[in-house]
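Researcher: Sequence recovery benchmark, item below. Answer with residues only.
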């Protein structure tokens, strides 16, 4: 089965980062077949940083385990030098610490290498649109781990002081794994209004994406 893009979807410009040549070649072939514009490749985090400066891709699809600087550190630096470039992690690791570190560093997607091409395409297109996608099993593990930890009053105080009641409602639904369409239906508002609320939430909490918003909400004890 191939991924079918909606007419309103923009063809994303993608940089591939992985130190295994064979995997990169296979991935490039699959993505090109899906009409993705693969603008470049890199083997290490440092090469990726240089490529981002030169190519300005919309989305970076990258592994975490590479020679040189760690994938997490590369993501952190990418967020600083190219804040509009979105990072989707594609890796073999489902370790809680790797997932958390990558998300908190700024990744807006986290998929395992056994993901289907359809799942990867959804991750890329979501990232290009400023959305987030994490494998459901991964998201469940992370949120369960966070719920088992002690809530931070600091996060709760910030949410109460910075967000409106409606924004808090939206944040709760984000943390419960609902997408924009589901949130819109739940609150009887338009998807565009949901996007506006999410933009305001990210700006007020000074975070990068909706995955971090979900983490913030759970750490606050909000959900």
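Model:
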């Amino acid at each position: 089965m191939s991924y079918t893009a909606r007419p309103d979807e923009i063809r994303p410009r993608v940089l591939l980062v992985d130190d295994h040549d064979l995997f990169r070649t296979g991935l490039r072939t699959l993505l090109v077949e899906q009409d993705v514009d693969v603008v470049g490749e890199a083997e290490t985090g440092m090469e990726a940083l240089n490529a981002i400066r030169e190519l300005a891709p919309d989305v970076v699809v990258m592994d975490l385990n590479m020679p040189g600087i760690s994938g997490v550190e590369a993501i952190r630096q990418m967020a600083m030098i190219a804040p509009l470039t979105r990072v989707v992690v594609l890796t073999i690791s489902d370790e809680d610490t790797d997932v958390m570190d990558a998300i908190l560093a700024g990744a807006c997607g986290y998929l395992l290498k056994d993901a289907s091409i359809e799942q990867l395409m959804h991750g890329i297109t979501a990232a290009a649109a400023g959305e987030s996608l994490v494998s459901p099993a991964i998201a469940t593990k992370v949120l369960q781990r966070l719920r088992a930890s002690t809530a931070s009053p600091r996060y709760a105080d910030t949410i109460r002081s910075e967000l409106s009641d409606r924004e808090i409602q939206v944040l709760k639904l984000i943390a419960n794994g609902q997408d924009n369409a589901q949130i819109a239906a739940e609150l009887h508002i338009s998807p565009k209004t949901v996007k506006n609320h999410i933009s305001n939430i990210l700006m007020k909490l000074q975070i990068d994406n909706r995955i971090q918003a979900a983490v913030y909400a759970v750490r606050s004890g909000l959900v």
